[in-house]
Design a protein that fits this description.
alpha/beta, 5 helices, 8 strands, globular, MPN domain-containing protein
Length: 201
């Protein structure tokens, strides 16, 4: 199985998106590249928290995210979502469709569903899904995802606790914006979210 590593900018953006809208469904896409050691997920682009169905807004956001990825020398490699309910860890039908679109351009595409009950616990709290024969299923591995020996890793073990601290102490999620926010205020830099990133990135 292909291995996946989530780097800090991607993890922080996923976390901030979920933290900013804790009672809403949120979603976005993951940017990265294939390397000899597997897929590196280097960045994330947050899409929506209002219109999370497969709408014209979603289509436009996806196209713009793909163009942004290309400008960075990256490509769309995955999708992420958080559900309205903390205990809902199923990949939503719209998630399957969006992840399927990403997979059309990148055969090793992955989807992550945020585990709301574990978010902020010091664990990555992401449930990986991969597609076989166009059916998306949670990954079944001998080891728990993001534990030692798993095909899914974060680039640094302290990323989950750092992300939680940045939300609790610096409230960086308040500076974070997605495509929905950009549609309401075009000054919001939803593709990069530079203002919301810690200064050491």
């Amino acid at each position: 199985m292909v291995s996946y590593t989530i780097q800090a900018p991607a993890y922080f953006k996923i976390f901030f998106h979920a933290a900013k809208h804790p009672h809403k469904q949120v979603n976005g896409v993951l940017l990265g590249a294939s390397t000899p050691s597997g897929v590196e997920i280097r960045d994330a682009v947050p899409l929506l928290h209002h219109w999370t169905s497969l709408s014209p807004m979603m289509e436009i956001g996806l196209e713009m995210a793909a163009g942004h990825a290309e400008s960075l020398g990256l490509r769309l490699v995955g999708y992420y979502q958080a559900s309205e309910r903390l205990d809902d860890t199923a990949l939503a039908p719209v998630g399957e469709k969006v992840a399927g679109k990403v997979k059309e351009g990148f055969s090793d595409a992955v989807a992550f569903v945020i585990d709301g009950e574990r978010l902020g616990s010091g664990h990555p709290a992401l449930i990986p899904y991969i597609s076989q024969s166009s059916i998306w299923r949670p990954v079944a591995e001998a080891s728990v995802p993001f534990s030692s020996g798993s095909s899914f890793q974060v680039s640094s073990a302290d990323l989950p606790s750092r992300a939680a601290a940045l939300v609790q102490e610096q409230h960086l999620q308040q500076k974070f914006g997605d495509f929905d926010d950009h549609l309401e205020d075009v000054t919001i830099d939803w593709l990069r979210n530079r203002e919301a990133m810690p200064s050491d990135l």
